[in-house]
Design brief:
Layout: H1 7-10, H2 23-29, H3 31-50, H4 59-135, E1 140-148, E2 156-159, E3 172-174, E4 179-186, E5 191-195, E6 203-207, E7 213-218, E8 224-227, E9 240-243, E10 255-263, E11 270-275, E12 284-288, H5 291-300
Antiparallel strand pairs: 1-2, 1-12, 2-5, 3-4, 3-12, 4-5, 6-7, 6-9, 7-8, 8-11, 9-10, 10-11
């Protein structure tokens, strides 16, 4: 029968915990087990402190070493690898810095060597030009080539001397190697030189061996053509060609070039001459002064102090 005083009705039923049993209640319920487990652990720890292995090592220390040795080895290996990598990185960084410094020094040394080589070459060219000038019986003035007309085979150049140095048109321009050309146009501080390879140029020349005379004019492919030499004249390849002096521009006996090809024509021979001077690499030249021009240049020179 229904009993209103039943304990099940006076005490409400506790709701079930869906998350599982309460942990403090579980510990209280098995408190004896946990106490026993703690006592056993303490006993084992005390025994490990008392037991000594054959090598006079306590058991607790042996266990500790065995437990932590893998971690210590792994940590030591990692430290060694990291230290080696850091040292390698530092060595590579220092090597890269030294390599950059050496590269900069090498570039500077190469530039210095090139500059010294250019200075030595210029000194040698000036010395050769001065020696050649001292051997000449006529007066000359040295000039530097400052520009050339466009084109690979340029037929005109510009020099840094002009009317202020006493130069005039139709003055011969030479080098120690041979004839270059003549002054075509004059300016206050510069002059234009027409090279002997230009078709409009003309140089009175003589063949050094046969002494046959002719007119040398510009041809093609940086060569010149020797005109008005009769077919019956004997001309050999390699024969030197020098100025005759009959054109009243170039002094007599200056080297002009050498014969490279000879052939018979209708009346006159076809003769190709290669210039002695390298007209594509001119840097310093000498301008041959005529007596009037030499006197004018002497007047333009500053007087020496008494």
């Amino acid at each position: 029968m229904f009993d209103p005083n039943s304990p099940d009705l006076t005490h409400p039923v506790q709701a079930l915990d869906h998350d599982g049993p309460d942990m403090p209640a579980f510990i209280k319920r098995h408190r004896s087990f946990f106490i026993l487990l703690a006592v056993v652990a303490v006993q084992i720890l005390l025994l490990s402190l008392q037991i000594i292995r054959p090598n006079h090592v306590r058991l607790i220390r042996y266990w500790a070493v065995e437990a932590f040795d893998p971690f210590e080895r792994s940590l030591g290996g990692f430290v060694n690898v990291a230290s080696t990598a850091y040292r390698t990185y530092r060595h590579l960084w220092h090597a890269q810095q030294e390599n950059q410094e050496l590269h900069i020094q090498l570039v500077a040394a190469q530039a210095q060597i090139q500059r010294l080589g250019e200075q030595a070459g210029e000194t040698q060219r000036l010395r050769t030009l001065l020696d050649f000038k001292n051997q000449l019986v006529f007066q000359t003035v040295a000039a530097e080539v400052i520009a050339s007309s466009p084109g690979e085979n340029s037929n005109a150049i510009f020099i840094d001397k002009g009317s202020d140095s006493g130069l005039t048109t139709d003055l011969a321009v030479i080098t120690p190697e041979g004839v270059v050309g003549k002054i075509l146009a004059i300016f206050p501080h510069s002059a234009q030189v027409l090279l002997l390879t230009d078709p409009s140029s003309g140089v009175g020349v003589t063949l050094a061996q046969s002494r046959v005379q002719g007119i040398l004019k510009g041809g093609s492919n940086s060569f010149c053509d020797l005109h008005y030499v009769m077919n019956e004249e004997v001309v050999t390849r390699g024969e030197a060609v020098v100025t005759s002096g009959l054109d009243q521009v170039y002094p007599k006996g200056l080297p002009v070039g050498n014969v490279v090809n000879v052939g018979d024509g209708n009346i006159y021979k076809t003769i190709n001459v290669k210039p002695s001077a390298d007209l594509n690499r001119l840097e310093m030249v000498l301008v041959v002064l005529k007596p009037a021009a030499a006197e004018q240049q002497a007047l333009n020179l500053p007087s020496r102090p008494q």
